Amino acid sequence: MVDVEQREWGNILLAGEGFLKKVIETNSIGFADEHRMEQRTWVVGYYLNNARFRGVTAIREIEGEIKGGKERNELQEFITLREKLEIGISEEGRHPKEVWDESFEALKRIFLYLSEGRKR
Predict the structure, then answer these.
(1) What angle do CA 15, 16, 20 make, to 5 degrees?
(2) What is the model's pTM?
(3) Is 3 left (phi over 0), alpha (psi -120 to 50) or beta?
(4) Any idea of the CA torsion for 90, 95, 97, 100, to the nearest 10 degrees?
């Protein structure tokens, strides 16, 4: 992962610019490109925010389903998860590992809900 000190906006924007420039010029990115230290500041944020965005989208669908008849407690649980995911990683001082752990727990809960739905 990346340390908080490396996640300053200037570094993130420069890394993102370099990363996207390579994609445009070569039409390819490999693990080595993503893992390169000067790129990781941007790549970490990209993947974390992408996962959080997808989690928010899934939770909104679940909330719509729950409003159609499920318990209020379960609905509130998903609303709380969605609100956490919507914050993103731009919060000052949050370590990417903390954000990853929070995102992972939310996504596990989404998958659990979806797997329980298939058993009904």
Answers:
(1) 120
(2) 0.68
(3) beta
(4) -20
